[in-house]
Amino acid sequence: MIVDNVNAPENIDEMTQDEIKKWLFRSIMKDTEILAEELGLQIDADLVEKIKKTKNLDKKSALELEYIKKVHSQVDDIVQNFDKSAKKSTKWDSWPKKMREIKEFNCVGATLLGIHLLENGGIKSYCGNPADHILNIVKLSNGEWWYVDFMNGKKNIKKIEPEEIIIAETPVLKTKQPNIDYKLIPIYENSEVVGSVLGNLSCLKQEAEDPNISDENIEKREAKEYLEKYSHNFQKADFSLLQESLYPKLIEIDETEEMQQEIERINTMREFVKPVQDYVKTLTIEQKRAIIEEVKHKKEAIESLFYQEDTSVLEDVSPKLRKALELFLESLKDAKDKQPEVYQEVVELVIDKMRSL
Fold this sequence. Notes:
alpha+beta
């Protein structure tokens, strides 16, 4: 169900949990390599050779960053061509076999591709697992930390200067940067990514069987279709139990007070921007691009709307951009008085993203 061209070991009953985890990671990365080839992702062998031969750490890191930007751009070109209509989603596209079938992926799938590409460049990376997300975290040869999200646009390669802390025996990067949503980013060895794949499968089953989610919901409909297609696999394996048994740290850290507060903060912020995101999903690609171009030319006026309550910009923009801005203002209206800190954080995050366009 998850990979092709990989057979289970004959002695699997005799394997330890660590041996099973190593086999799972090797299997999933073998299929990810095939996926990368099918997607046409290219490794710049000459650049990789330069990286290997360079001794000066700052020069080596500059080459590493050049490599990261090259492979990131290739993946982003694929993401930009996804079917972004309301008729489908990528929520469940996190295991190589499915990714190879449809040539699309979610953040887990993008991280798998990231692991493959970064390892081929000889670049040290980790799985970053902030609230409800996963991405690649890179440590360059000179010790710099970089936030590398292969799923969410070309500008998601960002240098971070985190405080390195420990929560529930797990390394966590604590950062406060206006252009990144997350303040706490737990990091793991890349092999732990399999736990996120299992978690996505477990979530798929739960959502498919959840009576509180409408059957018209596209994500639930896709989950039910996949659950039916591979019903024998879901009957044989409890993916939730597998994740808990083999990758307990992924679950334990989310139950800590620090991460619960972080998850609540992220969810609150997302609730504010959800009406705008839902509206933008109804627009065509051309309409979205037109709005982005308009925002680029009206950054100062939009900042004044949120910081000085100057509403004059609403009379000077297209109807579609005005609708998006009004939805955002309406969503934030109550928070401004009741949750001023959250209001300020959401506004600053949106403004920073607008400035980076």
